[in-house]
Design goal:
283 residues, alpha/beta, 7-stranded mixed sheet, 4-stranded mixed sheet, 7 helices
Length: 283
């Protein structure tokens, strides 16, 4: 079982994960960032300063199968990190461990402050109205006022008294984000929250997430299969393979970003290669 110890808000910085030469991570060679323009896209150095989350030697086995194998990771406070990997690589397993939903992991895991999760499905309680979903389990002063403010931030003030089943897919995900952020988490975990949305709604949600991140300042770990989504949103992109962080890049292209930016196109090609995808299909 992992030791999961909250870190004081004024705690000292944790040692960076990427402390080996040449951009290696967990002893595994990093991404092909040498070909990247160094002023726009460069190999990532793990965030310094006080960490929102620190993982050391995290291991998770399911029977004879090892999904996470001594994984090391540091997420800086206020950092937006995207996690990519093939299906079954352990992305959601890592997220569940950080959320405290999996106690069968081994290793050390520390989180600074509260953790909130938005899943692929909004998971709203159907027999409670939208505002009541946000206040459920909320112990902060004036929960109703906080819920109303959070709903206003995501454009759902007029839907506060609606039943969850009457919401559109985009509205339900906005309510899910509001429910997560009303708790003012230090770490926000997003488990493919946009994958079931149509393309136009997904674009709107991307903008909303960036606005909320800028306003509230949590560290964010986004699990996604969408390379373009990672490029548009994240400060740092990780590729999980073999139960560890196998590749890592920092994205320094200014926001708002455009998919056809030359540096993003170059990094996109490197990410697809790291994921084993070629123009003809999976390698």
């Amino acid at each position: 079982m992992a030791a999961r110890v909250p870190v004081p808000l004024n705690g000292t910085a944790n040692a960076p994960v990427n402390d080996t030469p040449n951009g290696t991570v967990n002893g595994t060679e990093g991404g092909t960032a040498g070909a990247q323009p160094q002023d726009a896209v460069r190999p990532a150095a793990t965030a310094t300063g006080t960490a929102a989350a620190t993982v050391r030697g995290l291991t998770r086995r399911f029977g004879d199968r090892t999904v996470l194998d001594g994984l090391d990771l540091t997420i800086g406070r206020g950092e937006f990190v995207a996690l990519l990997g093939r299906s079954g690589s352990g992305k959601s397993t890592l997220l569940r461990a950080l959320a405290g939903l999996d106690e069968d992991v081994e290793g050390a895991l520390e989180v600074d402050g509260e953790v909130a999760v938005a899943f692929q499905e909004p998971r709203l309680v159907p027999w409670k109205r939208v505002r009541d979903n946000l206040t459920l389990g909320l112990t902060a002063p004036d929960p109703a006022g906080r819920a109303e403010a959070a709903l206003a931030e995501v454009g759902l003030s007029e839907r506060a008294q609606a039943w969850p089943l009457t919401l559109s897919g985009g509205e339900a995900q906005r309510a899910s984000l509001a429910r997560a952020l009303v708790r003012e988490p230090g770490l926000l975990l997003l488990d493919e929250p946009f994958s079931a949305l149509d393309a136009l709604t997904r674009i709107t949600m991307h903008r909303l997430v960036l606005d909320l991140w800028a306003a509230h300042g949590p560290a964010v770990l986004l699990v996604t299969h969408d390379v373009d989504e990672a490029l548009l949103l994240a400060d740092r992109i990780l590729v999980l393979d073999g139960g560890r962080v196998a590749h890592e890049w920092t994205v320094a292209t200014p926001r708002p970003r455009h998919r056809d930016h030359p540096d993003l196109l170059t990094l996109r090609a490197a990410l697809l290669t790291a994921l084993g995808v070629t123009p003809e299909g999976p390698a």
